[in-house]
């Protein structure tokens, strides 16, 4: 191990030691941004950037397990991504399917797809459903693979599901208007039954949510990292946890 690696390891241990373990996040959302820009910066094809980003997911989940995180939501594919050039879109879907399959094959994590899979190509959607169904009994943390995901669409889908449910019960619009509240909508989100994200991390230096978990992030803490996603390191993750542990969470107060 070289001198630089030794220094890195020592710094990593110091960071980990300074994190208050009683104030760790239960649920972390990650906007894995910067694959394309990383590829351009290092002179690689865009597909290589997406592949490097997919490979990084294994590292992230291992770090989350070490930190005691229970749920991780990964934004793998937004509804806006459907507008990408056909060749890039084909590569991206192939890489995403391979990434989800690779996570499932570890036998460690419970993988759920969250998003509008009906917008995705049929064979791709069927394959993802088959892959994730095999992970339901796995013992590890829950991994939400946000694919075909947009925060506004999620809320619209939740409201639509709520309306359909009450229509089936024979509830009138007037009666529903009298009882509908935040909890009713929350129960119909893609992440129903899960804790809301305590911490949302976005890489690549962009400082916006871009529609990620709009409803669930009302009380989330945000951490924006300059590194492109393929270059995201464990020390970047530990810095995010340290930053989170040092914040005073006021929940709107």
From TrEMBL:
SUPFAM superfamilies: Undecaprenyl diphosphate synthase. Homodimer. Catalyzes the condensation of isopentenyl diphosphate (IPP) with allylic pyrophosphates generating different type of terpenoids. Pfam families: Prenyltransf. Its cofactor is Mg(2+). Its EC number is 2.5.1.-. GO terms for molecular function: ditrans,polycis-polyprenyl diphosphate synthase [(2E,6E)-farnesyl diphosphate specific] activity; magnesium ion binding; Z-farnesyl diphosphate synthase activity. Keywords: Magnesium, Metal-binding, Transferase. Belongs to the UPP synthase family. Z-FPP synthase subfamily. Binds 2 magnesium ions per subunit. This is Isoprenyl transferase. NCBIfam families: PRK14828.1, uppS. InterPro entries: UPP_synth-like (IPR001441), UPP_synth-like_CS (IPR018520), UPP_synth-like_sf (IPR036424). Mg(2+) binds at residues 33, 221. The active site is at 33, 81 (proton acceptor). Substrate binds at residues 34-38, 50, 78-80, 84, 202, 208-210. It comes from Actinospica acidithermotolerans. Gene3D superfamilies: Decaprenyl diphosphate synthase-like.
């Amino acid at each position: 191990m070289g001198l630089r690696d030794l220094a890195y390891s020592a710094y990593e241990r110091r960071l980990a030691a300074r994190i208050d373990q009683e104030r760790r996040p239960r649920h972390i959302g990650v906007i894995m941004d910067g694959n394309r820009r990383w590829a351009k910066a290092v002179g690689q094809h865009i597909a290589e950037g997406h592949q490097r980003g997919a490979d990084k997911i294994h590292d992230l989940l291992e770090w989350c397990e070490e930190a005691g995180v229970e749920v991780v939501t990964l934004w793998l594919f937004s509804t806006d991504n459907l507008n990408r050039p056909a060749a890039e879109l084909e590569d991206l879907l192939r890489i995403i399917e391979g990434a989800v399959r690779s996570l499932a094959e570890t036998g460690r994590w419970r993988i759920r797809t969250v998003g509008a899979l009906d917008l995705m190509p049929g064979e791709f959607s069927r394959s993802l459903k088959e892959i994730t169904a095999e992970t339901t009994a796995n013992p590890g943390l829950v991994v939400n693979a946000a694919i075909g995901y947009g925060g506004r669409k999620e809320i619209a889908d939740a409201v639509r599901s709520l309306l359909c449910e009450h229509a089936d019960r024979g509830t009138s619009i007037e009666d529903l208007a009298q009882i509908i509240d935040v909890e009713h909508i929350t129960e119909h989100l893609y992440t129903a039954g899960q804790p809301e994200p305590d911490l949302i991390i976005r890489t690549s230096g962009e400082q916006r949510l871009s529609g990620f978990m709009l409803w669930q992030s009302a009380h989330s803490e945000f951490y924006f990292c300059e590194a492109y996603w393929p270059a995201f390191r464990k020390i970047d993750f530990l810095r995010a946890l340290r930053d989170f542990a040092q914040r005073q969470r006021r929940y709107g107060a």
